[in-house]
Amino acid sequence: MTAISKSVNNQFSDRVLELRRKIHDSEYVDSAVQRIAQVLSRKLVEDSEPVYDGRKHGTR
Fold this sequence. Notes:
Blueprint: H1 3-23, H2 26-47, E1 51-52, E2 55-56
């Protein structure tokens, strides 16, 4: 294995270990779920613009 691929593997391994640690942290998981809910809620609100006669409100 080359030095570059070892470095990439180490970075990947470090990231995996970091994520494994985080998923066992209940505050981190709660915060992540809350953030996902906020993003999805915002997206749903933005996509549900009023429609009149098959067209978006305010368009001709």
